[in-house]
Amino acid sequence: MSLVLNFWLRVTALFSGFGEQFRAMNKWQRYSAYGLGVVALYLLPYWPDVPVLGQIVNTPGSQFETVLNDQVVIFVLIALGLNVVVGIAGLLDLGYVGFYAVGAYVTAILTSAHGNLPWLLALPIAVVISMLFGLILGTPTLRLRGDYLAIVTLGFGEIIRLTAKNMDWLGASRGISNIKKPPSMFGLKFGVLDAKPYFYLGLTMVFIVIFILHRLEYSRVGRAWVAIREDEDAAELMGVNTFKFKLWAFTIGAGIGGLAGVHYAGKVGFINPDNFPLQLSILFLAAVVLGGSGNMYGAILGGILVAYMPERLRNFSDKRILVFGIVLVLMMVFRPEGILPKRVGNEHKKRRARSQEGEVAS
Amino acid sequence: MSEVLLDFNNVTMQFGGVTALNEVSLQIKQGEILGLIGPNGAGKTTCFNVMTGVYAPTLGTVSFEGKNLAKLKRFEITKVGIARTFQNIRLFSEMTALENVMVGADARKKASVGGAILRTSRQRHEEKESRERSMELLQFMGISDRAETAARNLPYGYQRRLEIARALATEPKLLCLDEPAAGFNPAEKEELNELILKIREQGYTVLLIEHDMNVVMKVSDRVAVLDFGQKIADGLPADVRNNPAVIAAYLGVEDNAS
Amino acid sequence: MLLEVNDLHVFYGRIEAIKGISFTVGEGEIVTLIGANGAGKTTTMRTISGVRTVAQGSIKFEGQDITKMAPHDRVKLGICQAPEGRGIFPGMTVRENLDMGTYVRGGNAAEKAADLEHVFHLFPRLQERITQLGGTLSGGEQQMLAIGRALMSRPRLLLLDEPSMGLAPMLIAQIFEIIKQINSEGISVLLVEQNATQALRTARRGYVLETGHVVKEGSGQLLLDDPAVRAAYLGG
Amino acid sequence: MKKSVLRVGASMLVLSLVGVACGGSDDSSADACEGNSKIAFFGALTGEAGNLGINIKKGLDLAVAQHNEANPDAQIDVEAYDSQGDPDQAPALADKAIADACVKGIVGPAFSGESAAVNAKFEEAGLPLITPSATNPDLSKNGWDVFHRALAGDDKQGPGAASRIVADGKMKVGVIDDNSEYGKGLADIVQTSLGDKAVELNSLDPEAADYSAVITAAKDAGVDAVFFGGYYAAAGKLAKQMADAGVTAQFYSGDGTLDVGFIEAAGPAAEGAILTCTCAPKDSNPEFLKAFQDANKGEDPATYAAEAYDAASVFLAAMKDGKTSRGDILKFINSYDAAGVTKQLNWDEAGEVTGSAVYAYEIKDGAIKGIGLIK
Amino acid sequence: MPDWLIIRTFWELTVTGLALGSIYALVALGYTLVYGVLRLINFAHSEIFMVGTFGALLASSQFLSIPLLEDGNYPYRTGMTLIIFLVFIMLIAMLFSGIGAVVLERVAYRPLRGNGDAFGAIVLAFLTAFIVSLVFVDQAKINVIIALLATAPISYAYMRFFKQGRKAPRLAFLISAIGASTAISEAVGVWSKHGRDQYQTPRLLEKKTLFTMFGTDVRIDYAIVIVGALLMMTALTLFVNKTRLGRGVRAVAQDAETSRILGVNVDLIIIVTFALGGVMAGGAAMLFTLVYDQTRFNIGFILGVKSFTAAVLGGIGNLKGALLGGLLLGLVENYGSAIFGGQWKDVIAFVVLLVVLMFRPTGLLGESLGKARV
């Protein structure tokens, strides 16, 4: 087992090594590395056709690009959104699936059940309404302390699902079908068979969200969030309007959850309340914490793993959920901060430098 | 110079039957360093918390520049111009030193979510301002060499100073320091004394809660003594030092014991 | 020697709170540790009680090394503490709080009753409050309760962390009288105090702590007369 | 050192480009199947609804095994796509099935929910499907050419159940559902068909342990019969709790309840319950019964196994007829008209099997007994 | 008309609501105890309940060899036999749940407290080896053999890791709990005899009407559940208030640090707390099977969520709150179902919770295990 631990240390060292090399590069080199990475990501659907690599990444029982879109992209979007709420602002939300559902349902209602809007128009409306739901839920509940907030949000997620299930206007348990698909653009046809255009669209959404969150995180807003997470009272005494910023975190998180819902609804064309069970909220949270709560890239990695691994491990058939549960426990025992824990400042660089100095000295 | 900045008028504070402060009146004048001393548990920290809006007084009023603080929310008190440090250090431990100070500096900034996403010119300007001001403060406190270190990894002395820097960043009129010398050795205390005086020179009014007589007596313009929730003395350091009531309460009951 | 602390180092997270202190408490002695807030007094006390782990150095009790012993075993050996801030269980009655003192020792009902009698003899106020919840007591009563509770464990060494904190002068005097009385019954006392004058008067020997180091030691009177100590802790 | 990041990025890019090139060649050979043709099972084999899928797959396996035995040089494989009945997992599996040129037909999708999520894909790909179990009436209203049902939908079953209830002389029928797509749909149809004889008693939460609220309502309404739209586990609990609460109303339910699990869960309370199904009783075709028992260690075919066998037989017939492309097979199915083990198999435009046989079953002596067609 | 249903059937709804509420309350106690002592939502407590129902199932069908049906009817027992059987089944269920809770604590929580011991290391090592072996073969027996062989070296490595004593952040506990919850329920779903199917438990007690009150028949099983739950709760309260260990539990809940100073073995108290919660859940599980005669691998999930809601409703960390919250939730659900229809049951439950928390942010009775007194 020490072998495994050792291996693990190596892998993480490799990544941190990457980080340092990255910082050491000049601007031009850095941007080209980014560019190459982005292009490679957009080419992901073709990876299974590559020899060797394809063997490793391909999902045995299901279509790889569909998994990429329907599972991975959706989970990554959601992990990004939930990470704002849980990871950065430190608000425990166990009902995140509610916002995902709102996004999907608004799209469904506007483009199919009670309207005939194009998907592209439904998108902003759905995101805004999801944010409104965040606001509506957050205003009364954000005064509650951590664990109380958790159960209230959990209840909220259930209320959303059950309301959808019980109201004929929302399609009740039949759900809503014939949801409009995204319009064909840039030569991409959003049909039923080919998942690739959806993946490109979803990946673009992910990049946009990363861009926005990156800007938020390294601004007054992001600092306020982290300050609230670290010590809410101290933050307030340092002049942070904690309620306002908590509400913002909730609202932005809700918006991203809603966006994921819009994308999902547009892709599948059919939703019903059973697509939004309570267990999904828990899975979302697991993704964020597994990857590294508070670290955007950790959350992304968590989202990828939680979405992709069950498909990759289809051979385990009915044991994959069991394996998932055990892995969660093991991860939390041995790496409680997640796979990519949040990093603060440049201390790790300093530490390394210092240890090198030490070596020279001795 | 002698304008009253903070007026503590007949404040009583009770917690479930226990009286922590009993009709305390206290004034802090513009530009002075007021030392507040008293035995542990005498009510200094409660006094402090009432002042910074953590608790609302049971009776009496606290006003700052004539404005009643009771109605204000906690974060608004910072905006009015009161900043504080904490007895048991409460930094944002997962943020760098610089970010900690920037949170303080942000108190005076306006840009919010929209500005941050769009990177408006105002936001960029404010961001730059915050960063520069925070860096200056770190330099002022002599801890800028560890600006990029996570607060939790800073040495103790740095953490204490970082708290002061963070408080200063909110551009307070009144800076409240809660036992800033706790855990310092004499040399460090000496440095702290100088620092406090330097802060005052910059135009801040300082309220200093401290246990160490060396620190309090050396830097304070005026010293108030709390004991058992009551103010028992208020005056120049030399006078307070020789006040029999203070000696009895604070320095031990030496006279009736001997 | 009853208690021997040798080159003790203790960390709080990454911060070294105790940087190698040594001191002893003899059989039947009252020894005091004085120093400013943050000097490491409370950490020392908690380390002796075993709730902080020792990074380096050793603690011996009656010659037995207890550096790594679990807290409850130390209580069994006869080390009990009235912690800083009194540590009263707010939701328990005075009686139940006192019973917590016998938690480790157990003992039969008669023994407990005798101990209880003894505590009530020292602190008659507690008897009046016996069914009241700990959280509703005044500061002085809580301090009495904390000391009484520690006594219920029949300690050989009583650790008192800031017993005078937040008490009115009258009460402080009373508490120190009781400390002397307890000591006269053969219980050694290690006393941590900010009220240095009072503490040094009560104690046979004292140690001055500063940022995790012992900077001075000597008999109570010697330290009381030391000008540097007077300047730093006694207000000149 | 510095450049290694670039190098890794570049090599990944190159690899991907290779992939694009290879992938391109794949598309042109969509119809090229190397190896045996396959009939795919699509539905749950694991997860909470796994049992139903296993029944179906056994019927499919039997048909294919018989075919392979009879035609040694034209072997057919069975490919299973285990969706766990989950509409979220279904699309990636459906795409995989579509991408596999050897898959010529789908027996499934087993559930209505996943059907709604993926049938459009099969339609687009022209991959014919025959579902042996998804009975939601709405499914046939989408204009899907590839869609076929090997049994009648709930719009046939509901009125059938209602007429049986009426024929039994019941005057006041409490209608309960499990708030699922299937259960509520069926219960609504039954309720409409019953007209003023029906008393709506709302839904229950099938996952909950306690149904006393709805039972209290039934008791209060004084019903002489109860129709439950939902699955067997909940039906069993409901029947038992009703009996315990002293409700003596006759228990009716639909095909979701047609499982020994119902009898196990309800115990003696199941006795006399009447269930309807558009599926045929296991003994309706002795030949099939015997073949199934032989192939499955004496086990009786459970619900939908016979329908799956029929569905598979149609595909096999097409292949035997020399049809190899999906399009040809689809045409073959659309014009198919022959007797299956359960019924005459031919489909209308919408994909509904003609002839709307609804069978009634009764629980007697702890076993399910077919009691004939409902007129 | 449905508006009047609640009035016509009020007492009947009250009886059934109280019965279900009693079970909620017993399970809620587990959440409350652990929260009181560790400030941790023991998300896996629902599975402890589930394990208890399987304990009850095994006790009756395996240990007592009672068939599901005898000659086509329930295997009713009467008199002393019945009482002995029921007590036996309850004890076994409590044993299952109690052991389950303690194992859970040591494997999934204790290492996160920076306090992992050999037991946790061995179990975790076994699980690690087991899932790794699954990659290569998928045959339970072979997997177990491989896992057992690899356990020793892996647990050695794990022990070394535990020695570092790293404490995990709060969220990690929650995720570990979720993982454990998933794993326990799936393990039963995968490896029990009928897998994920519903299981029936033999019905020993004939569900006759015991007495009639307000025109409503009160069935004997409901009466047993309500009385049994109240008895267990009284026993627990007595234990917590009157015994030495119970005092330890209260002391740790109020002030863990001082408790340690006074010589309370906090790790032991935590084990006791989990065991108590487990025993209560086991009792609840037996009472549950007594009324509903069935269980399933996922039966804990919804019941757990409800019970946790009940605990919060009453004031988490407060024993009396758990009772109040449980009963209240059971009643509210029943009344609400009668008014709005069963499909709105959970919505009603959560709306009530929301409203209560709006006005009383720490639940009806407030938190604190220490203050819970009879």
Automatic annotation (TrEMBL), chain B:
Keywords: ATP-binding, Nucleotide-binding, Transport. The keyword Hydrolase does not apply. One of its GO terms (biological process) is L-alanine transport. Residues 6-253 form the ABC transporter domain. It holds the Pfam family ABC_tran. GO terms for cellular component: plasma membrane. GO terms for molecular function: ATP binding; ATP hydrolysis activity; L-isoleucine transmembrane transporter activity; L-phenylalanine transmembrane transporter activity; L-valine transmembrane transporter activity. This is Unannotated protein. It comes from freshwater metagenome. The lineage of its organism: unclassified sequences, metagenomes, ecological metagenomes.
UniProtKB/TrEMBL annotation, chain C:
PROSITE patterns: ABC_TRANSPORTER_1 (PS00211), ABC_TRANSPORTER_2 (PS50893). InterPro entries: AAA+_ATPase (IPR003593), ABC_branched_ATPase_LivF/BraG (IPR030660), ABC_transporter-like_ATP-bd (IPR003439), ABC_transporter-like_CS (IPR017871), BCAA_Transport_ATP-bd_LivF (IPR052156), P-loop_NTPase (IPR027417). The keyword ATP-binding applies. Residues 3-236 form the ABC transporter domain. Keywords: Amino-acid transport, ATP-binding, Nucleotide-binding, Transport. The keyword Transport applies. SMART domains: AAA. GO terms for biological process: L-amino acid transport. GO terms for molecular function: ATP binding; ATP hydrolysis activity; branched-chain amino acid transmembrane transporter activity. Belongs to the ABC transporter superfamily. This is Unannotated protein. The lineage of its organism: unclassified sequences, metagenomes, ecological metagenomes.
From TrEMBL, chain D:
Gene3D superfamilies: 3.40.50.2300. This is Unannotated protein. Keywords: Amino-acid transport, Signal, Transport. InterPro entries: Leu-bd, Leu_Ile_Val-bd, Peripla_BP_I. Coiled coil: none annotated. The keyword Transferase does not apply. The keyword Transport applies. PROSITE patterns: PROKAR_LIPOPROTEIN (PS51257). Residues 38-366 form the Leucine-binding protein domain. It comes from freshwater metagenome. The lineage of its organism: unclassified sequences, metagenomes, ecological metagenomes. One of its GO terms (biological process) is amino acid transport.
Automatic annotation (TrEMBL), chain E:
It is a multi-pass membrane protein. Keywords: Amino-acid transport, Cell inner membrane, Cell membrane, Membrane, Transmembrane, Transmembrane helix, Transport. It is found in: Cell membrane. Pfam families: BPD_transp_2. GO terms for biological process: D-alanine transmembrane transport; L-alanine transport; L-isoleucine import across plasma membrane. InterPro entries: ABC_transp_permease, BCAA_transport_permease. The chain crosses the membrane at residues 20-41, 48-69, 81-104, 116-136, 142-159, 171-191, 220-240, 268-291, 347-366. GO terms for molecular function: L-isoleucine transmembrane transporter activity; L-leucine transmembrane transporter activity; L-phenylalanine transmembrane transporter activity; L-valine transmembrane transporter activity. GO terms for cellular component: plasma membrane. Belongs to the binding-protein-dependent transport system permease family. LivHM subfamily. This is Unannotated protein. It comes from freshwater metagenome.
